[in-house]
Amino acid sequence: MAYRDEKLSEEKVFKDPVHRYVHVRERVIWDLIGTSEFQRLRRIKQLGTSYLTFHGAEHSRFNHSLGVYEIVRRIIENFNDRPNWDNEERLLCLCAALLHDLGHGPFSHSFEKVFKLDHEDFTQAILLGDTEVNHILRQVEKGFPKKVADVINKTYENKLVVSLISSQIDADRMDYLQRDAYFTGVSYGHFDMERILRVMRPMEDQVVVKESGMHAVEDYIMSRYQMYWQVYFHPVTRSAEVILSKILHRAKELYENGYAFKLKPIHFLSFFAGEPTLKEYLALDESVTLYYFQMWMEEDDPVLSDLCHRFVNRRLFKYIEFNPNSQMNEWMELYKLFQKAGLNPDYYLVVDSSSDLPYDFYRPGEEGERLPIHLLQPNQELKELSRLSDIVESISGKKRTDHKLYLPLDRLEEMSSRSKTKKRIMEILYG
Amino acid sequence: MAYRDEKLSEEKVFKDPVHRYVHVRERVIWDLIGTSEFQRLRRIKQLGTSYLTFHGAEHSRFNHSLGVYEIVRRIIENFNDRPNWDNEERLLCLCAALLHDLGHGPFSHSFEKVFKLDHEDFTQAILLGDTEVNHILRQVEKGFPKKVADVINKTYENKLVVSLISSQIDADRMDYLQRDAYFTGVSYGHFDMERILRVMRPMEDQVVVKESGMHAVEDYIMSRYQMYWQVYFHPVTRSAEVILSKILHRAKELYENGYAFKLKPIHFLSFFAGEPTLKEYLALDESVTLYYFQMWMEEDDPVLSDLCHRFVNRRLFKYIEFNPNSQMNEWMELYKLFQKAGLNPDYYLVVDSSSDLPYDFYRPGEEGERLPIHLLQPNQELKELSRLSDIVESISGKKRTDHKLYLPLDRLEEMSSRSKTKKRIMEILYG
Amino acid sequence: MAYRDEKLSEEKVFKDPVHRYVHVRERVIWDLIGTSEFQRLRRIKQLGTSYLTFHGAEHSRFNHSLGVYEIVRRIIENFNDRPNWDNEERLLCLCAALLHDLGHGPFSHSFEKVFKLDHEDFTQAILLGDTEVNHILRQVEKGFPKKVADVINKTYENKLVVSLISSQIDADRMDYLQRDAYFTGVSYGHFDMERILRVMRPMEDQVVVKESGMHAVEDYIMSRYQMYWQVYFHPVTRSAEVILSKILHRAKELYENGYAFKLKPIHFLSFFAGEPTLKEYLALDESVTLYYFQMWMEEDDPVLSDLCHRFVNRRLFKYIEFNPNSQMNEWMELYKLFQKAGLNPDYYLVVDSSSDLPYDFYRPGEEGERLPIHLLQPNQELKELSRLSDIVESISGKKRTDHKLYLPLDRLEEMSSRSKTKKRIMEILYG
Amino acid sequence: MAYRDEKLSEEKVFKDPVHRYVHVRERVIWDLIGTSEFQRLRRIKQLGTSYLTFHGAEHSRFNHSLGVYEIVRRIIENFNDRPNWDNEERLLCLCAALLHDLGHGPFSHSFEKVFKLDHEDFTQAILLGDTEVNHILRQVEKGFPKKVADVINKTYENKLVVSLISSQIDADRMDYLQRDAYFTGVSYGHFDMERILRVMRPMEDQVVVKESGMHAVEDYIMSRYQMYWQVYFHPVTRSAEVILSKILHRAKELYENGYAFKLKPIHFLSFFAGEPTLKEYLALDESVTLYYFQMWMEEDDPVLSDLCHRFVNRRLFKYIEFNPNSQMNEWMELYKLFQKAGLNPDYYLVVDSSSDLPYDFYRPGEEGERLPIHLLQPNQELKELSRLSDIVESISGKKRTDHKLYLPLDRLEEMSSRSKTKKRIMEILYG
């Protein structure tokens, strides 16, 4: 039997807290899960630094990837025998679902920003390079790795297939909303996925949802909205991200300035240079990162050491509302006051702005535009969701920006109560 | 106001998926949570290698410790104003609950076995040594660290207090059963804790449960029984433990034999010597451990390198039922055949025996005897649970041992199909 | 000890699927639950005819009333010691919560419309009349029944107390959303009540919510929105309501026309006359109503008999979208065609219009305006919710009317396929 | 297309709180659900009088019947293509599952005992008599009603089919345990049904379970054990049953003695005579029963009136432990004392004995022996569950009888405190 058609002698199941069970019947899927590149996702947290805000959020991208696979598997089970659906695409969909996050590194958001990398490029590189994953995909068919890469890259010709993996209501989002809600323990993130799956219909170039399922979709959009504001953009998480970014910046800066590290940061060198090879990229997972952070706590550079201490032991920066645009003067004065107080403002006075684009907003660490959601009306016409739903319309496309100023309040508090610098800083900050 | 009585200006809550919210009002508790020793528990998984079997089981001991604290807090809330209860002990109970697992290291079970350590000794050392935790406890009262240590050590004079933290139905167990069930996603582990808490009564020297709550307690005991067999003793988890132990053994052996490591295992040296200081012990968390395992994959020693590859990439050993006592001859023959096949049997042919002691059994990594559960009858007499419950009686004290033989089946399969050694091995193993 | 202060010797608990446990400590509450007027609520379904759409919705108003009591109990537990809160009002709040729905009759919505009754009048009458409930309340204090009645009537002077029982975010609504979601099994209706309760603050004349809890409140409003459209206004439920109303109409009409009932409708006589006494009102619960419907299936009047058959055996009318305002001509033609076909259009051709007022909408069977939700900002100012929340703003005050035409499609289908009347009817209906 | 093969144009789903959705594709099933005999199950509570103990337990047999159908549907979906499974039996299984409880009347347990009836006879009668259900089944095939009746009656030749509907681990039990737990809100009743379904295997003459699923089955058995003791045999529920039985006894006795009822009990006459026709049987549902109870509250006979008051308004008897065998003298003395006190002991002094047969026990209202559970071992041999499971063995076949004496404590308390009769009664009862 051709490898692509091989079935396991007995179906394998993974116990999954979100979907109850993840079912695997195909040999190809089983083999992909066993690759070192896929297993590596166990060492990358799904929500990066969020575990410092929500202690339950310690789950990995491995979890999520299995979940996305399972949702796509169920969608396709429902599609079987429907018009527009070509079951020849089934294995391709399953592989793309499973592997779509393969290129994520540790704390992607900050790493990518500081080192100017893009996890999507690495996903492509893993799929197409000399990897265990590529080796397995090639056994299916010579051009198969490219096909999987194209689906994930949204350039695959069959747009219906693409929309299963990335659209405004794809398996990726449906999994992470539910999974992140489950592990953080928040009460948002619930919607009736079983119903959505039942009313999904394959069309020529996209998956659509029967209009009768509109309320379930609204519920899903609202979950998203709530998860963004309550979890993904939580100001404490952003504080941890701020510190993380500053650690990476500082290490890079020190390296570029010829600072003599006690522990040579061999895993980071290519990152500092901006050009990690695939192998180097894969070697730097979260345990390696945390190892360095712990070693760097012992470095002589006070900024690097302090920031690492803060991250490892969760001594985060405090925040206040602060709009750098309208508060330019305060900003400049604070900058100078911090310098005066011996707190390098480039590292200790940080403005962070979050923005959300409800409905068509995208998740930190993700980019690109996604297909809107189309509802299939009884008369077989399609209509874009926000044209039928008041609620969705109300949150569509509205950009809301939230600026916060992050700083080490503990350091200010330690200063003498007679210090005028301190007094002035506190005055500006807290009025 | 005395430090021990200080309240936070506003109650703090942690969102917890198991208990919904963890509530903190005391400054002391808040400060303890912020110590580096307590934050370190975020880098120690609650279930060690179980995440390789149940992908959801990635939660840390930090999680669990907060949970135990919260349960004790709720128990005490119910105890208020009851006879036998002295509310002066409240803060002590909360601290002991929060800190009871403080001495756990990475993958405790294997580390302790191989390096002959005991996490309870380190819990004591952290509480009584020069640590942030000790510093805070001392502010409460000079002898307070010792009191907390005594409660955790079960030597504190007020046995009622001890029994809240460690007995057959203590807050520790009630938390981990529910928490481990939640994160693994298994359907065991549920019992009506709210009801148990409501029928708990403080007695002079122990916590007891009103007889009317017996069925809820039975349910709790059954949860424990199921969790042990379905989760804690899962043979795949034990396979990962086998490999982990063998890695540690091998590294130690190599070190003792003067092997030249490419990366000097500085974090491990004191462990190899069997005498890590407290500081050294605390420095070796799971991210550091995993860092070494990944570096060791590149070592020249084929055994160390292979075992690390197996652990990191989850290429576990397979297992078959095997009783070394009754199958001594097969065992000896296999040993020789493995040597012949170039597979060092000390590392590649491992018998692992699990035993359980339902009801009075104890959890891997824990030791000591625990107080049995007493039911308070309407006539105010106490009776031991198993004397009233058929179900509990049926599983009490019965030792069931389960022997398994672990080995790298993949290596055997790679051998030439004409190899007589292979043939004979397979014959012995699979008949 | 004064009756109002009497505690039960041991706290009583009710196992409740929604709130886990309902706790009762006061003798007054316990006695009220035991009255025949309160027990009668077991024979009135919480959601009237909804069980014909959602088979799980068979729960009674007894359930819900206990739930509202429990929520108020928890709110007050949090209020203890807060400014603006006078604990002297506690028992009053608990009684009002428990008894607020006491005057509901069977299938309130239709009964009240047809017989021009108001369940709120009957609640007042039960509280103030010669009833077991009144007898108990009077033991608390002579004027206590009036106080309870005033709270429920929203005329009590302490508006804070009133707002606990009836406002846009009162205990009533928080209970029924969760309870109705639980019993129907829909995935809407979830919100983080524990959080809302924790951020509720008593103010001089109302309960407000701290701004930090805004997202939890948004979630609650969205639950409401979804429950209205998915459950409360479900078109199949409305079909059952249509039939129910028409049964009551027909029975009344027959009675007024001197029709000789085989079974004299003694329980209904005072309702037909429009003036049931309290005793008569209380005697007519759902089992009595269903008894009559079953007996009336055997009546000679074909309309009454048919409608009762339909209700009892769930042979509901079908519906199509139909706007009587813009389709006046069709409506008139249909009316005549139905007459021609021998189907009395007054009973067999029914337009039903639902309207919703999201956020300030009210529930079928309830009336009156409710206090809006105010958020308490960090600067201690109050702001109305919709001014801070885009989502709530988007669904506030918008009236959406949905018209449907209900008719017995089965009867049309039975007509000869050559009937021109039938053909024309079908043409108008389905184009 | 043959009626038996007709599919609905679109799958219909019922929202079910226990199984999320119940799916119907077959026209036959849809039509059966619409029959008046099946709809009548909405007017019969699944747990009889349990709602007087657990207020959530107001769900009907209609609910449960849909649930059993859904479980069988899922089992068969898994059986497809397995050896031993003949898909020709599918529709038969679905119909038998749906209809297995069709003959239940109101409060079956007491009605059957007092009037010497058997709901199973009525199930057969409905299936085979002149009913809407029979009419539909006959359209499938002339002999089909008989086949369905045989499956339910356990006399169908294909024992595999029988075992799906009635065995120790059939769809009936799996549904009611979960459903009754859900509606009462107790934390028992959970087990991993999805897993059990996945390891079920069809054998020649029964359904068996793969040994690897043993722990899930143990969990199911334990759920059963807990549900029996915590819910089904709850002493308060038994108090309500005692009163119910006594009402029926009294009404019968009065009738036989020529008592002149104010309201002639026409619905009960044939029951008193012991020979209700099918039509009469079906007419007497719970609403009719409750109607009579409410009317009888106004009867002149003080016993009937009092008992009906007690049932309707939940003024239940109190209970104490009492073993009539070992306490014969007390019993006889109490009997006389009650007579002396003017309390007819035949109605007001009632011993009720419950017995359970854990594992092979059966549910109140059900009878007959059921096939034990067989585990399928890896070597393809079958072994009875209790031979492999200590826990199940421990509760197997052990009969535990629990005797309670029920009496109206309120009536005793009303007696003068100087009454010697009262004093002596209280002495015997409470020592």
UniProtKB/TrEMBL annotation, chains A, B, C, D:
What protein name applies here? Answer: HD domain-containing protein
Every copy of the HD domain together lies at 61-177
Q: Which GO terms describe its molecular function?
A: dGTPase activity
User: What are the top taxonomic ranks of the organism?
Assistant: Bacteria, Bacillati, Bacillota, Bacilli, Bacillales
**Where in the sequence is the signal peptide annotated?**
none
Which terms does the UniProt entry file under GO BP? dGTP catabolic process
Tell me which InterPro entries the record gives: dGTPase-like, HD/PDEase_dom, HD_assoc_2, HD_domain
State the organism named in the record.
Halobacillus litoralis
